[in-house]
Amino acid sequence: MKLVMAIIKPFKLDEVREALTPLGVQGLTVTEVKGFGRQKGQTEIYRGAEYQVSFLPKVKLEVAVPSDLVERVVEAIAGAARTGKIGDGKVFVLDLERALRIRTGETDVAAL
Questions:
Q1: pLDDT tens per residue, the chain (112 residues)?
Q2: Residue 46 has what DSSP assignment?
Q3: CB-based burial, 39-70: b 16+ in 10 Å, e otherwise
Q4: What global pTM score does this model have?
Q5: Could you tell me which of 32, 18, 39 has the C-alpha nearest to residue 60?
Q6: d(Cα 21, Cα 14) in Å, to the nearest integer?
């Protein structure tokens, strides 16, 4: 099992979710986050004054999937989240040692 974590632009969330549903992804966790990457934030002009935005709003997705589904999930997220502009985000894949569905007691892949 793997945990796929993605940091994307907030307005791409619905497109990513729609791309994951046909793959059999039955659930995901979404967190509103702030951060910066290579662009180190950006300079904004508001009411004639220039100021530095250090942290940009992003959305973090976490999806637990069976190992054989990882590549398709990563490709679906990347394809749906891509705008071709700086700040599109990143996708991380981590090993998931164990999963437990609290209600039923199912474990590992059955719990996903």
A1: 999 999 999 999 999 999 999 999 989 999 999 887 776 656 556 666 655 667 889 999 999 999 999 999 999 999 999 999 888 999 999 999 999 999 999 999 999 8
A2: E
A3: eeeeeeeeeeeeeeeeebebbbbebbbeeebb
A4: 0.85
A5: 32
A6: 11
Structure tokens at 10: 């907030």
DSSP letter, residue 41: S
Sign of CA dihedral 17, 75, 7, 31: positive
Structure tokens at 12: 């791409």
**Tokens coding 18:** 């729609």
Distance from C-alpha of 47 to C-alpha of 52, rounded to nearest angstrom: 14
- Over its C-alpha atoms, the chain yields an Rg (Å, rounded) of 17
Backbone angles phi, psi at 3, to 5 degrees: -110, 120
